[in-house]
Design goal:
mainly alpha; Growth Hormone, Chain: A; globular
């Protein structure tokens, strides 16, 4: 009988992930804004993000050996601790953080790399194809809940405390939440790795004719192209359009609430046979919802775009994530190489993010007008359609099954 419920360890991992999301949502939403206010430079934000993405990918690859051969829980905790160290550094540097944007990006990238390599392996071990969509639905729901409350509270605090004092308060609050999540992580079972880490595994998979990862990898990279720009540019664009942190917080509250409902619905209702149609609806609509920005980049059109994205993103991202992990667990051999495959998956995301961000770094020095930024967002926003095309054989195979 298929096991669709989540066990105690899965629930505890969801709590740790949720706290990590809350701490990052409290402060992470406003880090690009904080750097932009200090520098008035879109390029500086771009270089911060590039150093973060590149370091995250490199950390994934290097930490993969630790997670494969030793106690992966320590990697998870190091990631949380380094995230706290990142916000502590921003806190201590204050407005001078703009001078150290690249080192700060490297520190944040290391934190994300250590956390997510361990998290993804643990997630794979405590879920299976029958309850993976349910876990991803709950994870998206908790992430959305964090996005509803945390940035809204942060925006109100920053506005009411007149900027710098407010930023210091929310960065400190994030540090406290990171500390709580580290403590809770000790209730997760110790998970010692097995086998020897293969440094060349990813390249070997992609060089092998007929290997399914030759289609999965570009599909994941297509997801990364969009993420590379949207993860920081949307919030920054909202702030530049309104010059008000509380409005950015309200924007996050509204869009995250819509995402919460959508993640709950898709996570509950999505079946394997419907993944192909679900992904197609998702990838088309997250491109369509950008169109209002061509009329005017205002708080209203940005809100329409945000609501539309939040509504349709789960249709795309839940089956995308679940299918990638199903492929990792397709056989006993691939399951034994789960750490290497998770590193390969992350490499696809990082390469995609770097490609997307490179387009940002090329376009913005030439033209940083609202129209140019909208065209950039539209160009990278429709790339996931290519990802759906690469995923089609996997989705059709499941549909027939």
């Amino acid at each position: 009988m298929a096991k669709t419920t989540l066990g105690g360890q899965a629930a505890l991992l969801l709590i740790v992930q949720g706290l990590f999301a809350v701490a990052n949502a409290l402060s992470g939403t406003f880090v690009p804004v904080y750097l932009w206010k200090a520098s008035q430079s879109y390029m500086l934000i771009g270089w911060f993000a590039l150093s973060q993405y590149a370091t995250s990918g490199l950390t994934f690859w290097i930490a993969g050996k630790w997670v494969k051969e030793y106690n992966k829980m320590n990697s998870l905790r190091i990631g949380i601790i380094l995230s706290g160290a990142f916000y502590c550094a921003v806190l201590l540097l204050g407005p001078q953080a703009k001078t150290y944007s690249v080192p700060l990006g490297i520190l944040d990238g290391m934190a994300l790399g250590f956390f997510w390599i361990a998290f993804n392996v643990i997630y794979f071990e405590i879920t299976d194809p029958d309850n993976r969509d349910r876990y991803n639905g709950w994870a998206g729901l908790l992430g959305s809940a964090a996005g509803i409350v945390a940035p809204w509270v942060s925006g109100l605090l920053i506005t009411s405390m007149k900027g710098e004092r407010g930023y210091r308060f929310i960065f400190t609050l994030s540090l406290v939440i990171f500390a709580v999540s580290v403590v809770l992580s000790f209730w997760l079972k110790k998970r010692h790795g097995q086998g020897t880490y293969n440094w060349k595994h990813g390249v070997q998979q992609l060089m092998k004719k007929g290997n399914p990862w030759r289609r999965m990898f570009p599909a994941i990279a297509a997801q990364g192209v969009r993420e590379g720009v949207f993860m920081f540019l949307v919030g920054l664009t909202v702030y530049v359009a309104t010059k008000n942190e509380s409005k950015l917080g309200m924007y996050s509250l509204i869009t995250s609430f819509v995402a919460l409902i959508s993640f709950w619905f898709v996570g509950k209702k999505l079946k394997k046979k419907n993944r192909k149609l679900s992904m197609l609806i998702g990838v088309v609509m997250i491109g369509v919802v950008i169109l209002p920005l061509f009329w005017n980049v205002s708080y209203t059109t940005l809100l329409l775009f945000g609501i539309g994205t939040s509504l349709f993103m789960p249709f795309y991202i839940i089956p995308m994530t679940s299918r990638a992990f199903d492929l990792i667990g397709a056989s006993e051999e691939s399951a034994r190489e789960r750490e290497e495959f998770i590193v390969l998956r992350e490499a696809g995301l990082v390469i995609g993010r770097v490609i997307g961000l490179s387009s940002y770094l090329i376009v913005l020095p030439l033209n940083d007008s609202p129209l140019a930024i909208t065209w950039l967002m539209f160009a990278v926003g429709i790339v996931p359609i290519a990802g759906w095309w690469f995923m089609k054989p996997f989705l059709e195979q499941q549909q027939k099954a």
